[in-house]
Amino acid sequence: MNYIGQDSRVDLRVKFIYRVGMSPMPEGLSVWRTLKGAGVKYVKFVIVDIFGRPKLEILPIDAARDAFIDGIAYDGSSIPAYTTVNKSDFVAEVDADAVYIETWNGGKTALAFTSTLDGDKPHPMDPRNALKQTVEYLKSRGYEAKMGAEVEFFLVRGNPPSLVDSGAYFEGYPLKETMPVMEEIIEHFYLSGIGLTKTHHEVAPSQFEVNIPAGDPVQVADQILVYKILAKSVAQKYGLIATFMPKPFWGVNGSGMHIHVSFWRDGVNLFASYKEPTPELKSAIAGVLNNALANSVFVAPIVNSYKRLVPHHEAPTRVVWGLGNRSAMVRVPYYGKKINRFEYRHPDPSANPYLGFSAILLAAFEGLDKKLEPPSPVEDIAYDLEGVKETPKHLGEAVKLASEGVAAKTLPQQLVKAYLALKEKEWSDYLASVSEGWDKTWNVITRWEYDQYLETA
């Protein structure tokens, strides 16, 4: 159970005991009783779609009791690509460790994440199941992975959007339009149970970053969705839009979602060292770099993503790595020559975090398992390098490259096939919307992109 509240009279981590026979209470029922005792009136059961967007089944707290025990029944054919209408009666079981109170709504509602079943097995079309299975596979091979995320986004007004502040990186002066929004967002970030964080104004006007604390990959992926819901809800109160579209404005930095990764064995961080990267860290980086082009469709998944991946705006375009080098695709944080993780700067916040995380972990594990060696780290500004691999030119190219990677070969094939088909259609829809084609529109943010991504990415 994930909840931290200053005024709550109920400890949401307490396990209650049935009075009848003193047998342990089912975990779901324990969670339900805790929510009811905390004053929650409605539960929003979260089903994650193939794009990584939350779909909700909302029940009053009393009606939600049985759902916490037996799961939530829903029409699977209404979720993109999940199933056909003739086989659409699905059940999703509630994850009792992934429940968050929406403190920004006065604590009257809660988000409860679910995993869809195929009979008594995980359904292959649920991306949350895919990440859970990836994590379990790593554990079966003796590894525990921890991931964290730096999520960048813009606070804007209208569609087409306009910037609402003139702040710069680490802006120190008060910003009338955006700082009250960010203060409220950060307050609820903590109260809702995501954890402690830090935030700052990013390079572009109206752009901010928050950090999702490192932890279990499934939990962190859930928390990215909770954060998006939170940020969008608070921004709406101020008449603004919190957009996670990677490149809403040409000529300024886009928004990335930098992913920090470490691998552990028997409680020991295999990437931790001073001065020199460990052999395990280098092998993991080699796996990530080898799969970078194939994984692009999972970590930079929309047409607009490839307008972010251009030189000189702190987005990676060269498939290289370096120590403390923010122009490289993979950066090893190197503060005081202390090393404990790598940072993958390729992803953006429009990514389905469950599929994106799975692709990253599988790539890193392939490097570890095969003891791959990466090329030498790059010290120069990577945008100026020649003769090295570059990120795909556009989404259409990324779709074609996907089949070459370990993720597309390892994730449930039904899921991969449907996902790539939808991405191919998305690319075709974009081309149909612009008469000039990509070569004339790669440096222009089109109306089609705003309509597709501004509020839904």
UniProtKB/TrEMBL annotation:
Pfam families: Gln-synt_C, Gln-synt_N
Species this chain originates from: Thermoproteus uzoniensis (strain 768-20)
SUPFAM superfamilies per the UniProt record, alphabetical: Glutamine synthetase, N-terminal domain, Glutamine synthetase/guanido kinase
InterPro entries assigned to the protein according to its UniProt record, in alphabetical order: Gln_synt_N (IPR008147), Gln_synt_N_sf (IPR036651), Gln_synth/guanido_kin_cat_dom (IPR014746), Gln_synth_cat_dom (IPR008146), Gln_synth_gly_rich_site (IPR027303)
Name used for this protein in its record: Glutamate-ammonia ligase
Cofactor: Mg(2+)
Occurrences of domain GS catalytic (ranges): 127-457
Record keywords, A-Z: ATP-binding, Ligase, Magnesium, Nucleotide-binding
PROSITE patterns: GLNA_ATP (PS00181), GS_CATALYTIC (PS51987)
Family: Belongs to the glutamine synthetase family.
Transmembrane segments: none
Biological process, per Gene Ontology: glutamine biosynthetic process
GO MF annotation list: ATP binding; glutamine synthetase activity
Keyword hit for Ribonucleoprotein: no
